[in-house]
Amino acid sequence: MNLIFGNNLYYNLILFIAVSIVFTWAATQTFKVFLKCWIGKKFSFKMFFSDGDFPSTHTAVVTCGVVLVLFLNAFTLGLTDDRVISSYNSAKDFLIMFTLASIVIRDAMGQRHRQDNTNRNLKNLKDYIQERGVERNVIDHIDATFQSIDNEAIKRVGHLKHEVYGGMVMGALCALYPIIFFFNRYDWLPFAVITTVVCFVGVIIFLKLKPVVVKKMTYRRAKRITENTQNKK
Which terminus of the chain is more exposed, N or C, with fewer CB under 10 A? Predict the structure, then answer.
């Protein structure tokens, strides 16, 4: 292992874990921003801290943690020094708590932000109605307000299945690169790079074909429901 902090193995393992988790978060969010800019043709720095969309950053971070635990467990199987093994076990405890804390804190902050925006929208709506009375433009304003609440409180919470799966793949891939660097496993680098390129191209193709795929799935589902209804009759 590359000992950046001298011979203190525990500190080096903590650095390895912190870099892995932060790298996974940064890479996933950057990839998400790239896709948003590519599809929506718009860019905002706030995108780097947004929730939802493809891929799931939460899933990526947790998956990265799982891969790191598996790797550290496998790595310690060949060790015999009790002090070294103790350092690895302590680092794994830190990894689990660090991953859990990062997810919980991010969710707490994000949920509070969405709730504040929802409350602000409702207050603005109440003030607008009191000032203007019930007119056509009030109805339009109500529709716009509830559309904003819907976008803030529902669409940005949770993920679709393909976003979760994408987060799992992203987390596993991001975990490989810190392992390669810190543990000198450069023989894994070609596999990591090729897999990353294949996944990136696959995501681009999937997003290009997604409207067609969704349309076909919707048609097949509707056809199946119709056939089941007719059979019951």
Answer: C
Cβ proximity of 92 and 16 under 8 Å = no
Q: Per mean pLDDT, which of 116-120, 156-160, 178-182 is the most reliable? A: 178-182
Q: Which of 128, 165, 130 is nearest to 148 (CA)?
A: 128
Q: Which residue, among 91, 103, 96, has the nearest Cα to 14 in the 3D structure?
A: 91
C-alpha 169/C-alpha 125 separation (Å) is 42
The answer to the question of residue 217 being in a domain is: no
Find where tokens 């720095």 sit: 45
Number of structural domains found in the chain: 1
Are residues 29 and 49 in contact, defined by beta-carbon separation less than 8 angstroms? yes
Return the amino acid letter for 212.
Answer: V
Q: Is the bond into 55 cis (omega within 30 degrees of 0)? A: yes
What is the number of other CB atoms lying within 10 angstroms of the CB of residue 34? 13
Any residues with CB less than 8 A from the CB of 195 and at least 6 apart, and which? 173
**Predicted TM-score (pTM) of this structure:** 0.70
Contacts of residue 112, defined as CB under 8 A and 6 or more positions apart, other chains included, come to none
| Terminal C-alpha separation, the chain | 69
DSSP 8-state code for residue 44: -
Cβ neighbours for 71, distance < 8 A, ≥ 6 positions apart: 175, 179
| Domain ranges, residue 157 | 9-184
